[in-house]
Amino acid sequence: MKVAADHRSGNSFLDFLLSFVADCSKFQSGYVALIGKPNVGKSTLLNGIIGQKLSIVTAKPQTTRHRILGICSGPNYQMILYDTPGVITKQMHKLDELMMKSVRSATINSDCLLLIADICHPPEQVLGTLDEGAVNLIKSKPTLLVLNKKDKVKQSEIQKKQEWYEKNSGMDEVIPVSAKFGLGIEEVKQWLVSKLPLGPAYYPRDIVSEHQERFFVSEIFREKIFQLYREEIPYCSQVNVVRYVEREAPAKDFIEIEILVEKESQKAILLGKEGKALKTLATAARLDIEDFVDRKCYLEIKVKVKEDWRKNEELLEHFGYSGKIASASL
C-alpha cells in the first residue's frame, strides 16, 4: 500500500481511496474466539485452521495461559482467531482469575465464536459452566459448536451426539471434527467465512500472528515442561525470554531464558540429579525452537524461585497476563 506516492497526485490518491472502498465491499474480516473447557482441543483446532503450529499442545489440561492470536488469510477474507485458556469454574490463584478474564475479553471482542466440546464425553449443556453474562454474550453472536475428537468414536455415535446437540445446545450449527487429523477443518473455515462481516484486512496477509518470536520461544519451552514433568511442575513454572540476540550464520542465535518456580523443592525437580533433567528439557526445547525460527540457537537457562508468583498480580501483569506480552527479567 504505497500511500506516500499517492499523496503526490490528487487523482491517484482518489483512485486509491475508491479502490480501498471497493475492496472493503467484497472482503470479509473479523475476530473469532475459541471457547471451551480445558483439554477439548482448542489449540489443535486453531493450529489446523491456520495451517501451522502456533499454540502449544499437550495432553495435560490448562496448557494455554495466554490468549494466543492467530491469523488466517484467504483471497477474500481474513479471520483473526483467539485461542483462549480452558474455562474453569474453580479459580485457585490470581493467575486463574486473569486467564478467565482473558476468555471473557476474547468473547466480548469477537465477531463470531467457536464453542468446542469433546465428543468422547457424554452429551451435556455446553453453556452450563459459564456465567449468565458469558452465556448472553455467546447467544448474541454467531456461534458454531465444534464437536472435536471424532476420530476416537464410531460413526454411529458421532451421528447420535450431533443430533442431541443440534436439538439441545441452542447453537446455530454443530460440526463434528478431528482437529488432530484435519477432518472437518475446511467445513469449519467455510462456516466462519460465511459469518465474517465485510471489512478490510486488519493485518498483512502474509503473517500468521502478531506475537514476536520470543513469545513463541517461551511457549515452546513451556510445552516441553508440560511434556517432560509431572504433577505440579508444569503449573508452577513460568518461562521468560530475558534476552534474544539474532546472529549472522554460521553463528548461533543467543537466547537467555529464566524459569520461575515457587519452591526450592520444585527447582530441585526441574533441575534433576546433577542437572540431567534440565539438560533433557533444554535439548528438546532447542530442537523445536530451531525448527520454528529456522536458525541454530544457543540457550542459556537459569532456574529461579519466586514464591507464590501465581498469586502476585503485579508479577502476573509483568509476565503479560493482563493482555500484553512482557519478556524482561525481574
Automatic annotation (TrEMBL):
Q: Where is the Era-type G domain?
A: 28-198
On whether GTP-binding is a keyword of this UniProt record, the answer is yes
Residue segments, region G3: 83-86
What Gene3D superfamilies does this protein map onto? 3.30.300.20, P-loop containing nucleotide triphosphate hydrolases (3.40.50.300)
List, for all copies, the residue spans of the domain called KH type-2: 229-307
GO terms under biological process: ribosomal small subunit assembly
According to its record, what are the GO cellular component terms?
chloroplast nucleoid
G1: where is this region? 36-43
**Family affiliation:** Belongs to the TRAFAC class TrmE-Era-EngA-EngB-Septin-like GTPase superfamily. Era GTPase family.
Which PANTHER family does the UniProt entry name for this protein? GTPASE ERA, GTPASE ERA-LIKE, CHLOROPLASTIC
Question: Which NCBIfam families does UniProt cross-reference here?
Answer: era, PRK00089.1, small_GTP
Q: Which protein are we looking at?
A: Era-type G domain-containing protein
